[in-house]
Design goal:
Chain lengths: ~290, ~425
């Protein structure tokens, strides 16, 4: 017989969910609705004069070739960063999960980069790869590559992917490690007794069992690349060269905060919000089906 | 030293706490770091010590763009500072917000403070005045663009004289490259400021209509003229073998000069302190180069830097304090000293004359270069200054297109045409918000 607690009336349940509701409303719904409202206005920076312009901000946005380019850039950037940060983190986590001497120290070191602010991470990488001052750009030049992220878009993108990935590996590593440790040793040992080698054990036993973690991290990483990378972009390339590393979120920042075009910037963030909601929905709808909990 | 300043601060704290009732606080938000931050603090300290009725309180709000945004956000929330330091490209934004600001000249008059707009250097105040000449904000740290020269390297490369014209610079750069500077013959910081904004003024060609926006927000960009295209095309050609090498949109790569990599480098005259401290070679600065076939060149340069804006909606008594502080700031001795110590340009004619008379420039010619450029000729409507709404964005657009041309993605003409079209869109957007 199952024991059930019965709560009479609505007061207590409501009170209990109230803090969570308040947080959601104040920190999500309220700013989101403000952004939607602002995207229909044209306003000067000081908010002295505002005019309702309907969908004009959206229309002018979709007339800009730069906006489409930012979409493509974002797609490339986010898939590269999500893939590399997940792959590297998984590799590191499987290695750190082994019984090795000083394993704890390795784990701690691997988590450290997460404590570095995105902009600082950006500056660190920028210094290492600066075309003339960077310590690492000299060896690159020595092997015959004309390293110049200031004018070469591919170099700039490489640099951004490196720093954004590096920054996110720790976070992914932490979750993968926890995920790996949650896998019962008996399953792996059983596979080993059946004669499966380490690689086969990984792909047929560990990786599927890790899929809830991988899926969660995929969602989190995509959101990270979409929203949290503008600090890195601002510090490393400033969206350049020739706007070719301007992602959607960086364009929101550049147009709104640097450019003072609040309406256009709000319209962009609304679109960005829709894209991320759609992406997350797709991930939950299609990718989650393949996930084994 | 530490102890002394600590004691001083303590004493100041005690002094202020006893007289707190009578004192009116003046908030001053600024964007100065390092040595310039000390200058700001020292000015406030000196002013506070010089009288008892007002107290200037300074706070650092981050970089220029951050400080402007902090001021805007504070204004929207109803607690703007009294004085806000705004960089030169934010001028149109501030001007457009008539309800948010108090024009300096009007404030001085209302406060009954003695104020003569003619006492200030027109090359500097012109940037911050209306078309009728009414001063809107108080210039604070001003600079201009000059050409920095590594004399040792020029000598080694066999360049006898400091180049004056662009063709001479190209020749010198080729010689420098042949002499081992294979990554950079010459370069410049601030891509748009150097190659479009200063370039236009210095050659007396319009960057835009309506006196570069000074006569109205319905200005239209014109910086895709044959001269502009020719200059960019030259840079594009020289970029191919790094006789010219691009150094970015801001001043982050100025180290290429002090490290010795680029022996000819165009950037702000405010680079002085850095060069003086870090350059381990014989250096000098010179006027920006020009194309001798452009009639009337060189004209005069325009300024960069920042000015102090007074925010609107404050009490008369507070404005009186701000007015007193501005008078204090404009004092001849103080300006002369500030100029000689910090490298900022003096804002009054008297301070410039005084420094000249003292023989200071004979020993420090580098500090006069920007002033020589600014006052080279009587400013025309192409060289008085720039006033474009959303200029920060426009600068990015221009830099983006310059980068596209230098990277070989499109011809110089296409790049500048696109930049003009895109800038005009931004200008129209701004025009509609200020109407």
């Amino acid at each position: 017989m199952e024991k059930r607690a019965h709560i009479s009336g609505w007061t207590l349940p409501l009170l209990l969910i109230l803090p969570q509701m308040a947080i959601t409303v104040i920190f999500f719904y309220w700013p989101a609705s403000q952004a939607i409202w602002q995207s229909f206005l044209r306003e000067d920076a000081f908010g002295l004069a505002s005019e309702f312009v309907g969908f004009e901000n959206y229309v002018s946005l979709f007339e800009q070739p730069e906006y489409y380019r930012a979409m493509v850039t974002t797609a490339i950037f986010s898939s590269l960063v999500a893939f590399f940060s997940l792959a590297c983190a998984l590799l590191l986590a499987t290695q750190a999960d082994k019984n090795i001497r000083g394993g704890q120290a390795f784990k701690t070191f691997l988590i450290w980069p997460y404590a570095v602010a995105p902009a600082i991470a950006g500056v660190l990488w920028l210094f290492m790869f600066h075309p003339t001052l960077g310590t690492l750009s000299k060896p690159i030049k020595a092997i015959g590559i004309d390293w110049n992220p200031m004018l070469n878009a591919n170099h700039a993108m490489t640099l951004l992917v490196l720093s954004a990935t590096w920054k996110q590996i720790s976070y992914n590593f932490l979750f993968f490690l926890a995920g790996l440790q949650a896998i019962p040793k008996s399953v792996i040992e059983a596979a080993a007794i059946d004669g499966a080698g380490p690689l086969r054990r990984f792909w047929t036993v560990i990786f599927p069992l890790l899929s809830p973690t991988t899926f969660f991290l995929l969602v989190v990483n995509v959101v990270y690349v979409f929203f949290d990378t503008f600090g890195i972009i601002d510090a490393v390339t400033g969206g350049g060269p020739a706007g070719q590393t301007t992602t959607l979120v960086y364009k929101v920042y550049a147009d709104g905060r640097l450019g003072g075009d609040l309406g256009g910037s709000a319209a962009q963030s609304v679109i960005l919000m829709i894209i991320v909601i759609a992406l997350t929905a797709i991930q939950f709808r299609y990718v989650e089906r393949k996930v084994q909990y | 030293m530490m102890k002394k300043s600590l004691l001083g601060a303590l004493a100041l704290g005690l002094a202020t706490s006893t007289s707190a009732f009578a004192q009116t606080e003046i908030q001053w938000w600024h964007a100065m770091t390092g040595a310039n931050n000390d200058v700001v603090n020292k000015l406030a300290e000196d002013f506070n010590a010089s009288q008892k009725d007002y107290k200037v309180v300074v706070s650092y709000k981050g970089q220029y763009a951050d400080t402007l945004n902090a001021g805007i956000a504070a204004f929207r929330a109803g607690n703007a500072p009294h004085i806000l330091q705004v960089f030169e490209v934010g001028t149109a934004t501030m001007m457009g917000a008539r309800g948010a600001i108090k024009p300096v000249q009007e404030m001085m008059k209302e406060a009954g403070e003695k104020f003569d707009p003619n006492a200030y250097l027109p090359a500097i105040t012109g940037y911050y005045s209306t078309a009728k000449g009414e001063m809107l904000s108080m210039p604070f740290n001003s600079s201009s663009m000059v050409m920095w020269i590594n004399k040792d390297e020029l000598k080694k490369a066999g360049v006898a004289e400091i180049p004056k014209t662009w063709p001479q610079v190209f020749d010198a750069a080729k010689k420098l490259k042949a002499a081992g500077h294979d990554t950079c013959g010459f370069s410049n910081a601030w891509a748009s400021w150097a190659n479009v904004e200063q370039f236009s003024a210095w050659h007396n060609i319009p960057m835009a209509t309506k006196a570069n926006g000074l006569d109205g927000f319905d200005t239209e960009m014109k910086f895709n003229s044959p001269q502009h295209v020719k200059h960019l095309q030259n840079l594009v050609d020289l970029q191919k073998d790094k006789t010219y090498d691009y150094s970015g949109r801001d001043s982050k790569s100025e180290g290429r000069f002090t490290s010795g990599e680029c022996a000819i480098f165009l950037t702000s005259s405010g680079f002085y302190g850095n060069v003086k401290a870090n350059a381990k070679f014989d250096w000098a600065n010179a006027p920006m180069p020009y194309y001798p076939d452009v009639q009337g060149a060189p004209q005069n340069s325009i300024i960069g830097g920042a000015s102090l804006w007074v925010m609107g909606g404050k009490k008369a008594d507070e404005y009186k304090g701000v007015a007193k502080f501005f008078t204090f700031l404009s004092d001849t001795d103080r300006q002369a000293k500030l100029h000689q110590e910090s490298g900022y340009l003096p804002i009054t004619k008297a301070a410039y004359e005084k420094t000249k008379a003292s023989g200071f420039y004979e020993k420090n010619p580098a500090l006069q270069m920007a002033l020589i450029e600014l006052t080279n000729k009587e400013p025309t409507e192409n060289s008085r200054g720039l006033r474009f709404g959303n200029m920060v964005q426009i600068r990015d657009v221009i830099s983006e297109e310059i980068e596209a041309a230098l990277a070989g993605q499109k011809p110089a003409k296409d790049a500048l045409d696109t930049a003009v079209t895109r800038s005009n869109q931004i200008l129209r957007q701004f025009e509609r918000t200020v109407r």
